[in-house]
Amino acid sequence: MTNTKKHVYNFSAGPSKLPDEVLQEISEELTDYKGNGYSIIEISHRSPMFEEVLAQAEHDVRTLMDIPDDYAVLFTHGGASLNFSMAPLNFSVNGKAAYVDTGVWSDKAFAEAGKFTKPVVVASSKETGYDHIPQLDTQAIDREGYDFLHITTNNTIFGTQFRDIPNLQTPLIADASSDIMGRWLDVSRFGMIYAGLQKNLGPAGMGLVIVRKDLMQRAPDSIPKLLNYNTYQEYDSMFNTPNTFAIYAMGKVMKWLIKQGGVRKVEETNRFKSALIYEVLDDSDFYSTKVKTDSRSIMNVVFHLPSQELTTQFLTEATNHNLLFLRGHKIAGGIRASLYNALGIDAAKHLADFMRNFENKAKSS
Ligand code: PMP
User: Fold this and answer.
1) Which of 1, 39, 238, 287 is least enclosed by beta carbons within 10 angstroms?
2) What is the arrangement of strands in the sheet containing 206-212, beginning at the earlier edge strand?
3) Sign of the CA dihedral 151, 156, 158, 161?
């Protein structure tokens, strides 16, 4: 990177902005790791040097999320999505699992589970266009003896987020791809948390899995080795060659996050950033959001303008102001501002100002 790099505000939903300091550090040492004359991505994953990178990344994940010792921390292949298959493959002893349907990603997890177990939707907000997090009858779920309850903690496309994590006896499995380490999660409340790295954690392509060790014992030996969480545990996530670059870069992001003051601290900042945008929406009769107030995401703010024409104009003018990648997912339409950890408060302020100006201009023309 040079000083002439264009200054932009990157609101991409994923892969997403990485901290500038992290990219700088990576670019400085990528061709020559610690003065050894080679890159970290040019050496064996079994070399002591890479083993140290991986061990340090795991250590920092444990520190940042205060992970109890009875949980394993694993780097799995196939991003978040392979865990849609792995979770039911590994944990279905009774042959039925409960799913909360909060949109596209939870639906994909549900569909995949149907290949390995009998998934049951126990709550859904589908009828109202996924505009809220539905209430759960946790006692009824516990009575049914499901192998686990699956939730998506933050719904990247619709902009909803579980404010309270369900409290129940049934093991809770959470896809936290778009809010992991962007908000505090009490790991001891979960059977497993999984996430793709590419939003708050690092580059795309791998999954981070935090799983209670006793649950892993459920996995039948018959399942493919690379789809068995025990393999990842037994071989320190290196049964075969992992994406060494992603793990290395993630390690840098973990160090950056520690420097920011940890997860609780960045959560505060994320709340502040999202409040700046929600404030504009609440003050406005021009912008609207379908998301119910108690389900608003602090990571992805999804909103709409009065017409498609104005939406297109908004996106063009935003790009001219270096406010990038704000187009909503095609299923939800409108605008989506993803406010992951690496995006500073200044970005949210600029967007809020831009929104106010755009509204005033549109009304006066
Ligand atoms: N779950 C959620 C909530 C997501 O937002 C995404 C990616 N946008 C995924 C799963 C899929 O992640 P991956 O591409 O790493 O499989």
Assistant:
1) 1
2) 71-77, 206-212, 192-196, 172-175, 149-152, 96-101, 118-124
3) positive
Indicate left, alpha or beta for 17 from its phi (over 0: left) and psi (-120 to 50: alpha). Answer: beta
- pLDDT at position 139: 98
Asked if omega into 15 is within 30° of 0 (cis), the reply is yes
pLDDT in the model for residue 65: 98
- Ligand 1 atom nearest residue 78's Cα: 16
What is the distance between the alpha carbons of residues 149 and 91, in angstroms, rounded to a whole number?
Answer: 11
- Positive or negative CA dihedral for 48, 77, 100, 278? positive
DSSP 180: B
pLDDT in tens, 219-251: 999 999 999 999 999 999 999 999 999 999 999
Q: Could you tell me the distance, in angstroms and rounded to a whole number, from the CA of residue 272 to the centre of ligand 1?
A: 24
End-to-end CA, the chain: 42
* CA pair distance 50, 37, nearest whole angstrom: 15
Residue with tokens 């021009």: 286
DSSP assignments along 69-88, one per residue: TTEEEEEEESTTTHHHHHHH
User: Residue of the nearest CA to atom 3 in ligand 1?
Assistant: 177
State how far Cα 41 lies from the chain centre: 25
- Which residues participate in catalysis according to the annotation? 105, 175, 199
Rounded Cα distance, 124 and 132, in Å: 9
Annotate 27-81 with DSSP letters as a single string.
HHHSSSGGGSSS-GGGS-TTSHHHHHHHHHHHHHHHHHHT--TTEEEEEEESTTT
pTM of the complete model: 0.98
Residue corresponding to tokens 């690092």: 202
Among protein residues, the one whose CA lies closest to atom 12 of ligand 1: 80
pLDDT in tens, 246-270: 999 999 999 999 999 999 999 999 9
Contact 325, 12 (CB under 8 A): yes
Whether residue 109 contacts residue 152, with contact meaning beta carbons closer than 8 Å, is answered with yes
Collapsing DSSP to helix, strand or coil, 20 comes out as helix
What pLDDT was estimated at residue 3?
A: 62
